[in-house]
C-alpha cells in the first residue's frame, strides 16, 4: 500500500497505555500512518529527576512511544529495545534511571532540542511512524480538587496521600499556559482517526487535551474520535467513576463527544484484582456513555504477566490492555 493510501491514525496519551496500543498498531504499519502525540507533563521517577537536573522537557513518555514503534525484525532490534527500556538498579546516582531517558537527555544536549533528540532516536530505532511532543514548552500539570486544594505536578497528582484518595479533580490545566507543537496540530488536522488513551484519564490523556490549541485542532479535524477507557480507577482521581463519567470528562475538556468508546468486558485475574481492591481501586465498569457515540464492550485485557523492574521507584499498573486485541478492535472501526 502506498503512503498516500494509508489511513492516518493519531494516538494521544502517554505512559504504559500508549506504549501498549502502539505495539499493537505497529503490526499494521503497512496500512497505517501512525503518529503518537505524547504528554510533556511527566514529573516523576527517572524522567522527573532528569527534568529537575537538566531543565529539559520530560522524555519518559516519548521514550516509551519510540520503543513501542521500534523495528522488531531481528535480534539486533530486540537488543536495542531492551537497551532503551533498561533501568539501572544500582550505582550511586544511576539507580532508578532508565538508559533511554539518559540517551535522550544526552542527545538533547548535543542537538540543542528535545524534538531533534526524538527524531534522532527514531532513526536509531527505525521507528515505524512518528512520535511528537504535544508541546515544546516546559509545563506542569495543575489540578484543582473538589475541596478547593490546588496541586501542581503530575507526580504529586498521581501519588496522593491516603487522606485524598477519594477526592476528585474539578479542573485540570497546565501551568504556565502553553501552546501545542505545530507538528502535533498538523497531525491531528490531517488524521483519519484520533485515539485518546488508554491510560490514566487525567495525567496521561487529558494532560494533552488541556494544552492550548488542542480543542481547536480537534474541532478542525474530520477524524473519527475514539476513546479507550482505562481498565482500573486511579486513587485521588477516578474513584467511583465508570465509563459514563470518563466519557463526560473527555467531552468536557475536548468539547467533543467520542464517536466510539472501547471498554473491556472480560474478567481480571483474581489475585491482581485483589491487590487493586486492597489499595482502594476498582475496575472501570460499563455504565453506558450517555447520548451519542457507539460503545464497544469487548475482551481487551492482557493475560500476560507484568514483570516488575528492579530499580523502578514508581507504581506501575499490573492489569493492562492486550496490544493485539486493542489494535484489532481499532482496525475494525477504521
From TrEMBL:
One GO biological-process annotation of the entry reads: regulation of cell shape
* GO CC entries: cytoplasm
Keywords (A to Z) from UniProt = Cytoplasm
Per the UniProt record, the source organism is Candidatus Kaiserbacteria bacterium CG_4_8_14_3_um_filter_38_9
Family membership: Belongs to the gluconeogenesis factor family.
What function does the entry list?
A: Required for morphogenesis under gluconeogenic growth conditions.
> Where does it primarily localize?
cytoplasm
Which cell locations does it reside in? Cytoplasm
**Protein name stated in the entry:** Putative gluconeogenesis factor
Amino acid at each position: 500500500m502506498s503512503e498516500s493510501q494509508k489511513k492516518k491514525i493519531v494516538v494521544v496519551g502517554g505512559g504504559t497505555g500508549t506504549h501498549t496500543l502502539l505495539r499493537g498498531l505497529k503490526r499494521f504499519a503497512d496500512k497505517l500512518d501512525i503518529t503518537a502525540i505524547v504528554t510533556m507533563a511527566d514529573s516523576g521517577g527517572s524522567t522527573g529527576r532528569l527534568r529537575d537536573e537538566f531543565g529539559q522537557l520530560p522524555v519518559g513518555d516519548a521514550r516509551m512511544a519510540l520503543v513501542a514503534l521500534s523495528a522488531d525484525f531481528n535480534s539486533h532490534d530486540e537488543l536495542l529495545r531492551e537497551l532503551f527500556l533498561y533501568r539501572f538498579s544500582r550505582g550511586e546516582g544511576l539507580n532508578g534511571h532508565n538508559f533511554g531517558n539518559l540517551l535522550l537527555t544526552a542527545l538533547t544536549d548535543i542537538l540543542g532540542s528535545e524534538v531533534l533528540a526524538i527524531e534522532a532516536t527514531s532513526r536509531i530505532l527505525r521507528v515505524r511512524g512518528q512520535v511528537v511532543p504535544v508541546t515544546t514548552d516546559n509545563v506542569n500539570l495543575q489540578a484543582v480538587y473538589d475541596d478547593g486544594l490546588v496541586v501542581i505536578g503530575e507526580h504529586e497528582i498521581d501519588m496522593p496521600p491516603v487522606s485524598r484518595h477519594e477526592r476528585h479533580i474539578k479542573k485540570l490545566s497546565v501551568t504556565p499556559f502553553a501552546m501545542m507543537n505545530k507538528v502535533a496540530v498538523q497531525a491531528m488536522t490531517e488524521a483519519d482517526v484520533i485515539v485518546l488513551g488508554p491510560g490514566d484519564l487525567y495525567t496521561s490523556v487529558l494532560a494533552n487535551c488541556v494544552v492550548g490549541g488542542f480543542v481547536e485542532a480537534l474541532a478542525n479535524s474530520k477524524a473519527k474520535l475514539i476513546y479507550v477507557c482505562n481498565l482500573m480507577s486511579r486513587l485521588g482521581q477516578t474513584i467511583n467513576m465508570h465509563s459514563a463519567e470518563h466519557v463526560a470528562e473527555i467531552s468536557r475538556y475536548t468539547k467533543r463527544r467520542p464517536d466510539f468508546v472501547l471498554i473491556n468486558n472480560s474478567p481480571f485475574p483474581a489475585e491482581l484484582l485483589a491487590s487493586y481492591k486492597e489499595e482502594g481501586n476498582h475496575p472501570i465498569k460499563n455504565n453506558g456513555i450517555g447520548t451519542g457515540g457507539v460503545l464497544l464492550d469487548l475482551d481487551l485485557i492482557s493475560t500476560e504477566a507484568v514483570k516488575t523492574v528492579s530499580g523502578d521507584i514508581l507504581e506501575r499498573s499490573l492489569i493492562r490492555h492486550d496490544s493485539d486485541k486493542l489494535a484489532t478492535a481499532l482496525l475494525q472501526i477504521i
